[in-house]
From TrEMBL:
Gene3D superfamilies: Glycosidases (3.20.20.80), Golgi alpha-mannosidase II (2.60.40.1180)
Record's keyword annotation contains Lipid biosynthesis: no
Pfam family name, one: Alpha-L-AF_C
Top-rank EC class of the record's enzyme: hydrolase
Protein name: non-reducing end alpha-L-arabinofuranosidase
PANTHER family: ALPHA-L-ARABINOFURANOSIDASE C (PTHR43576:SF3), ALPHA-L-ARABINOFURANOSIDASE C-RELATED (PTHR43576)
GO terms assigned for molecular function: alpha-L-arabinofuranosidase activity
Annotated catalysed reactions: Hydrolysis of terminal non-reducing alpha-L-arabinofuranoside residues in alpha-L-arabinosides
Entry's EC annotation: 3.2.1.55
Stretch forming the signal peptide: 1-19
Complex formation: Homohexamer; trimer of dimers.
GO annotation (BP), single: polysaccharide catabolic process
Organism whose genome encodes this protein: Draconibacterium orientale
Length: 685
């Protein structure tokens, strides 16, 4: 006889209105296991995702390149604005003017210096000439002094005669908080030092100056200055490593994104002195090439994630991509394997998931094209990648479609893209990528609740959306459909409404993941956007790392052990969306739920999301075929404001609640507040 367990969840709340919800989970009725790759993450060399974000180095322009190197494209006077902002933040009154008159971007000088920006080989350098007095250049930095006083410094420089350079850390009142000396001569040398920065009045987020003082009567040239907090982990932020490790991140997609369509992987391997410094090919910013394949693979190993690489099918070649596979996966006795070994990694990286290009259907992409041409490109790339390593799995670059104002829009030059891909390539295509960046039609005048309902309607429509976009073209070609969602976020732009950085992003992500769990294996992987300072999840502002709500939503799924979907039936109130921003839909369930059983059958994770912005939900959950212990683990994240966000000043405005709930007999009462996601983990007796 099937045992029944009824759990009624209740929470002491202030809300006057409470709705009744019945959820039934059948443990005896199981689907085939999902892949933990549904809980992956995407990262890209964009803005402060990598440099100024996940990478712990704090100097804004460590390679002394001129402001003119920063890409302009359609960003207007962004560089001028950023220099002005840096000048004001760090009280560097000459910074903007100096960047126009012989000094590197983000570096200001004392009045008695003559500066020139020069180039030697693949690297730029800053030359400064002093007169009869000591001179200096300086740049603003944010230091995580709340975490550590120790900093590791690397200076590559030379001078016209034997001299010294003094490196100082100062507060904005020009009090010296730490200093060290570097001895220079006429040859380029790279020297490393450590420094202690001591201040009794430090507040989180305080700004500091990094100053390089030069002796009188010298011509000194600076090629590179690096400053890492001494608690970094192989260059990565230690808090980032801990947060990703704690969430048990299963999969990390890199290095792009739009970036990869102009990225050549050989630029990012080998000694740092041999890596070129280049403008970011896709975004405003510089590509220092301090972080490349080896560094990304190391991060994956540090946190326990499987690497997924997207290759350059924009202005790259199939041969280049195949050599990337060989560099990662060949033994050390081949040419590419030998190169990897020379770079410090004798054993293969064994990267098994490779994506052939990024968003090549769109005019914004380097090397964008139409469906016929991409189909031909894929036919060139795929065989060469598989020849390099026949054990890898490929993901083809799919069409981007969006729902806006109840209309299906193909973002790109060819709405027949996926059909042409399959028609030309057939069984050579194993899986097709989907990018779901939803909500761009939401404007600043939008009602937050109305916009939120439209975003939820997209979730409810997602199975049909994927069927029309990917399943039909693949089935028409007699290929078993497989979907890889390689970029994902809710993306309304106005801060007055919810998006990926607020509770909206956390609950929307939950809905998409629940849909993927219920897809019966159609969706093989999801890499949410993005790692840090891009999309939602983790932020680093003024040296302070903190999480947005979607990190905790992601954590709920990735940190638990369940992989076997259970049958879930939900009897819930419903609502409708207007379709003003995304799509109109009737009978949308207020409560969304999914459940996963672990491989032992002894632990069940239940995810319950209250998508109502105003009404609490009194939930009665019945689990059939499971005998739980008398205490269960609860985790919840919630907010009564769709647009509320965490910040560096208030990093825990929205924070998770962890608790234990007692099962008395077969019943526990719990009421879920509005805009909340709850995870209950039940272990069996």
């Amino acid at each position: 006889m099937v045992k029944l367990l009824t759990l009624m969840f209740c929470f002491a709340l202030m809300q006057d209105v409470v709705a009744q919800v019945q959820i039934t989970v059948g443990v005896n009725k199981k689907d085939k296991p999902i892949s933990r790759n549904l809980f992956g993450l995407f990262t890209e060399h964009l803005g402060r995702n990598v440099y100024g974000g996940a990478w712990a180095q704090v100097v804004e322009n460590p390679e002394f390149v001129p402001a003119s190197y920063w890409p302009v494209r359609d960003y207007g006077n962004m560089m001028e604005q950023k220099l002005q902002q840096s000048q004001e933040t760090f009280k560097l009154t000459n910074l903007v003017n100096d960047s126009r008159n012989g000094f590197a971007a983000y570096w200001a000088s004392s009045d008695n210096l003559h500066g020139r920006l020069l180039k030697e080989g693949i690297h730029d350098f800053q030359q400064i000439e002093t007169g009869d007095e000591v001179g200096y250049i300086q740049s603003g930095v944010f230091l995580p002094l709340h975490r550590t006083e120790g900093y590791e410094l690397t200076l590559r420089a030379r001078s016209n005669n034997q001299t010294k350079v003094t490196l100082q850390i100062l507060d904005l009142d020009e009090n010296v908080l730490g200093e060290t000396n570097f001895e220079l001569n006429s040859a380029w040398e790279t020297n490393k030092k450590t420094i202690k920065v001591r201040t009794s009045e430090h507040q989180k987020g305080d700004a500091y100056l990094l100053r390089l003082l030069v002796e009188p009567g010298t011509v000194t040239e600076f090629a590179r200055i690096l400053c890492f907090p001494d608690d970094h982990i192989d260059g990565w932020e230690p808090e980032l490593v801990a947060l990703l490790k704690n969430m048990k991140l299963p999969l990390l997609r890199f290095p792009g994104g739009n970036f990869v369509s102009g990225y050549h992987w050989m630029d990012g391997v080998g000694p740092i002195d041999e890596r070129p410094v280049l403008p970011n090919p896709a975004w405003h910013g510089m590509e220092w090439n301090h972080v490349g394949t080896d560094e990304w693979i190391n991060l994956c190993r540090l946190v326990g994630a499987t690497p997924m690489i997207c290759v350059n099918a924009g202005n790259g070649t199939a041969e280049e991509a195949a050599n990337w596979v060989r560099y990662c996966n060949d033994p050390a006795n081949t040419s590419m394997g030998k190169l990897r070994a020379e770079n410090g990694h004798k054993e293969p990286f064994n990267v098994k998931i490779w994506e052939v290009g990024n968003e090549l259907c769109g005019e914004w992409q380097i090397g964008f094209t139409d469906g016929d041409d991409y189909a031909r490109r894929y036919a060139m790339f795929a065989p060469q990648l598989l020849k390099a390593d026949s054990s890898i799995s490929l993901v083809a670059n799919g069409l981007i479609q969006v729902l806006e104002k109840s209309e299906l829009i193909s973002r790109g030059v060819d709405p027949e893209w996926n059909y042409k891909l399959m028609e030309h390539n057939g069984n050579l295509v194993r899986s097709v990528s989907v990018h779901s960046l939803v909500g761009r039609a939401v404007d600043e005048n939008a009602d937050p609740v109305e916009a939120w309902k439209d975003l939820v309607a997209f979730i409810e429509n997602y199975p049909d959306f994927l069927h029309n976009l990917v399943v039909e073209p693949m089935e028409q070609a007699n290929v078993k459909p497989k979907v890889a969602i390689t970029e994902l976020m809710d993306w309304p732009q106005p801060r007055s409404v919810g998006n990926v950085t607020s509770i909206s992003g956390a609950l929307w992500y939950s809905g998409i993941i629940n849909t993927c769990i219920r897809s019966n294996g159609l969706v093989e992987l999801v890499t949410r956007s993005a790692l840090m300072n891009h999309g939602g999840g983790l932020r680093k502002d003024r040296g302070i790392i903190y999480s947005q709500p979607v990190y905790w939503s992601h954590f709920m799924y990735s940190s638990q052990n369940g992989t076997i979907p259970l049958d879930v039936k939900t009897d819930s109130p419903v609502f409708a969306s207007t379709g003003k921003y995304v799509i109109n839909k009737e009978n949308i369930s207020t409560v969304d739920a999914s459940a996963l059983l672990d491989e032992t059958g002894n632990s069940a994770s239940i995810f319950i999301c209250n998508r109502d912005a105003e009404t609490a939900q009194k939930v009665e959950l019945t689990i059939e075929g499971f005998n739980p212990k008398k205490e269960a683990a609860l985790m919840m994240i919630e907010s009564n404001d769709l647009a509320l966000r965490n910040s560096w000043e208030n990093p825990e405005t929205i924070a998770p609640v962890f608790d234990k709930i007692t099962v008395k007999g077969n019943t526990v009462k719990y009421t879920i507040p509005p805009l909340a996601l709850v995870r209950i983990i039940l272990d069996s007796e």
